[in-house]
Every structure is written in C-alpha cells, then in structure tokens.
C-alpha cells in the first residue's frame, strides 16, 4: 500500500457521514459529498450489500448537480478521482471516468422527489431475493419498520442501464423511501447520504425478518428469454 493509498484509507476511516450530515442539513459541500460517497460505498461493500462492481451512489450538492459513482469499480475500493459530477440531464461536468449506466435512475429520483439529496442502489441479498421472487416488503410485522421505513413496493422489471429503469421507479419516488427492483436489486433515497444508507440497511433487515418468519423461500420470477437475450448483448 502506497502512502497515498494509506491517506485515502485513513480519510475514509476517520470520516463520519452522520456528523457531516448534521453539519450540512441541506446540500453537502462537494468535498464532503465525495468523501461521503466513498464512506457509503465502503459500508455497503463491508456488509455484503454489493459485490464486485455492483451498485451505485449519488449525492445532490446543488440544484441540478450531483456527484456519483462511476461504472466498473468496486464500491469498497473507490478513490475521489474516480467520482463524476453530472447535471440532471446526464451531462458530465467533472471527472474522467465513465458514469454509471444507472445514473438515469438516480436523476429520476431527484426530479420526482424535491426533498431527496442522496440515492443508493445495491443488491443486498435478502431484499434482492424478494425482488427476484416478485414480493414487495409490505407485511407489518415489525414496529420499527412500520414507523421508520414503511411499505417497500416492487417496481416492474426493466432492463438495467436503460431509460426503462428510471420510468419503472418514477411512481414510487415521492410517496415511499425505497423500492425493490424486480430481478435486479434495491434502491433507497433520503434527505442525506446517511438517511439513504440507513434506509438501505433497514430494507435488508426487514427483508431478513420476513424471510425468517416464513415469507421466503418462494420460487423466483424468471427473466423472459427476450430480456435474457438483451442482457447478453
């Protein structure tokens, strides 16, 4: 590990996403947003909510401007220079890495929900199993889930990386705090990075409890042959 690597690691280790969000209750300064994205990515990776180069994270830092993760990198090992800045039409304003193919989904969250400041997409295992089985998280079995998270609906299947994903989540962005993506994963959002991250953790915990109380296992809903062909290119 080089000195610069150790500096990056130390910065992420000392950074407090919760403290930063309290200091800046509306828009995060850009530097804090970049550090927050790295911190959130590491937490997602350490919890097994993303593997390999799965998932994506974004943070709104000013009206119409977001910092986001690029495509093709592990969320557990990102550095600041990998992140990209974009407007809400997908035009890259800063950064040299290619943007995530799911950037359209994040932009749609901000367009549909004026209070959203961050969005996180992950493939946390149990919640994603519900998404693959076509089952929303809507049984009121846990007081904290009812009070803090609410119903987590299921968006219909849309081919990842296409505008159809953004269309599929649009009806849910204002009335809910997260959504399952059929045969794909989970998306949460919030008024801060920490809130979006906590909501992702709550979705996975709630799904785990539903599994333990007998809702799963259930047969998965299979992706159609037509969509399989599209996914394989």
* Number of distinct beta strands: 8
Low-confidence residue ranges:
1-12
Number of domains: 1
Topology pattern, helix = H, strand = E: HHHEEEEHEHHEHEEHH
The CATH topology name reads L-fuculose-1-phosphate Aldolase
The neighbouring-strand order within the major sheet is 4-3-2-1-5-8-7-6
Outline the structure in words.
- The chain has 233 residues and is α+β, with helices and mostly antiparallel strands.
- It has one domain: 3-Layer(aba) Sandwich (L-fuculose-1-phosphate Aldolase), CATH 3.40.225.10.
- Helices cover 41% and strands 15% of the residues.
- It contains nine helices and eight strands.
- An eight-stranded mixed beta sheet has the order 4-3-2-1-5-8-7-6, with helices on both faces.
- α4 runs parallel beside α7.
- It is globular, with a radius of gyration of 17 Å.
- It starts with a helix and ends with a helix.
Secondary structure: elements and pairs:
Elements: H1 3-14, H2 17-23, H3 30-46, E1 56-62, E2 65-68, E3 84-87, E4 92-94, H4 103-112, E5 118-122, H5 125-133, H6 143-149, E6 154-155, H7 163-169, E7 178-181, E8 185-190, H8 193-212, H9 225-231
Parallel strand pairs: 6-7
Antiparallel strand pairs: 1-2, 1-5, 2-3, 3-4, 5-8, 7-8
């Amino acid at each position: 590990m080089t000195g610069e690597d150790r500096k990056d690691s130390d910065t992420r280790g000392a950074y407090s996403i919760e403290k930063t969000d309290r200091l800046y209750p509306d828009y995060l300064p850009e530097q804090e947003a970049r550090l927050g994205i790295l911190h959130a990515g590491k937490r997602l990776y350490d919890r097994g909510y993303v593997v390999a180069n799965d998932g994506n994270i974004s943070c709104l830092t000013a009206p119409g401007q977001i910092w986001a993760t690029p495509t093709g990198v592990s969320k557990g090992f990102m550095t600041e220079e990998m992140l990209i800045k974009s407007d809400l039409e997908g035009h890259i304003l800063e950064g040299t890495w290619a943007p995530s193919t799911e950037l359209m989904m994040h932009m749609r969250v901000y367009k549909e929900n004026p209070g959203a400041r961050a969005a996180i997409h992950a493939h946390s295992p149990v919640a994603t199993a519900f998404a693959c089985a076509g089952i929303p998280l809507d049984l009121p079995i846990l007081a904290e889930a009812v009070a803090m998270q609410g119903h987590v609906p299921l968006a219909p299947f849309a081919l990842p990386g296409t505008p159809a994903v953004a269309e599929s989540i649009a009806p849910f962005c204002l009335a809910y705090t997260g959504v399952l993506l059929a045969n794909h994963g989970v998306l949460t959002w919030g008024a801060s990075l920490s809130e979006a991250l906590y909501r992702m953790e709550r979705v996975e915990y709630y799904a785990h409890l539903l599994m333990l109380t007998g809702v799963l296992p259930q047969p998965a809903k299979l992706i159609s042959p037509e969509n399989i062909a599209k996914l394989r290119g």
